[in-house]
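Why do we care about 3D structure at all? Because function follows from shape, and shape follows, mostly, from sequence. That is the central idea of this module. The next example makes it concrete: a single protein chain, its amino acid sequence, and then its structure expressed as tokens.
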Amino acid sequence: MSSPSSASATLTFRTQKEIDQLVLRRVKERNAWTVDGAKTSPITLRQAFSFMTKSMPEMLFFKVDETELDKVFPVLAMDWDRIKAASDTKETANNIQLTWLGHSSLLIQMNGCNIVTDSVFSYRCSPSQWFGPKRYRKAPCTIQELCAHVDIDLVLISHNHYDHLDYPSVLDFYKHSNAQFVVPLGLADWFRRNVDKNVALHELDWHESFDYDTTLNNAIKITSLPMRHWSNRSGDRDKTLWCGYSIQAKCGDSTNRVLFPGDTAWFDQLEQVGKNYGPFDVAALPIGAYEPREFMKHNHTDVLEAVRMKDATKAKHAVPIHWGTFPLTTEPRWSRERSCWRSCRLDRMRRRLWHGRLEKRKHFEIEV
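And the structure:
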């Protein structure tokens, strides 16, 4: 894996040709990573075709019993008082609070800074709201409601897949907040063309960082991290970068760290992420969209791999994301992840994870 650097990103010092060359370099780097010591194999056309033909009908015509889901997997009302309190820098200067908003969307509050990750609030994660995978659990609030209660400072986007980069949601955050957007290398052009040419952007290559000053006069440091995934929006596979993020906040003599990996499959080089950027106080780990494993092992971690990832990245606590919202693959939509998460108790693995009920919109508050 490439070595960390101390570079800070801007939007002006790279030409499109330079961006293309850097992204291609990262693609080659990803392709050279190993899994359990063995070099990984790229996804074949046969695997991709098999997945699409088997999974597409199930994703498009997926049905659930809403009454049963409301009982066992409820969407909870937002606790606005608690969320507002977490924005009070005097009270929460040394705390981290995470609120799960569904799929990979989180509200992360630390050092008086309000950060949203991979904001997807639409009914479908698709190029159109007329077709594509639709929610079976609604978002706990609208973007307008969220922005009316707290000032959103940053929106982090990990890559351009539709379940992570949602145009209506991005546009709503742009309209209803003064948030700055943090995006992987190559995505700034999409934002300028589709949102506004003057949108506040920070475009990062792996290992690049930028500092965001908070009301505590302590900077939140956002660093782009290498992850094993890919990008594709409309036939432009791997033309823009994908990444995870380290979110670091200085609190006096201590430093708080949160890991948001976006999407990733397991790869051995995750240990370098932990070595170079950890330990993390909390990591938001993806646990869904993992079957069929023949295909999805190249794209997403399952629950047990998420446990390995927590240890590899040196995270003290972990919260599950990337599940319980959209039907993206062939595993049971919510019960399998829930039961696997709970079954970790059998060999005490769950003790190495967050001890929290799995509910839509769950607050996780950590004192560090």
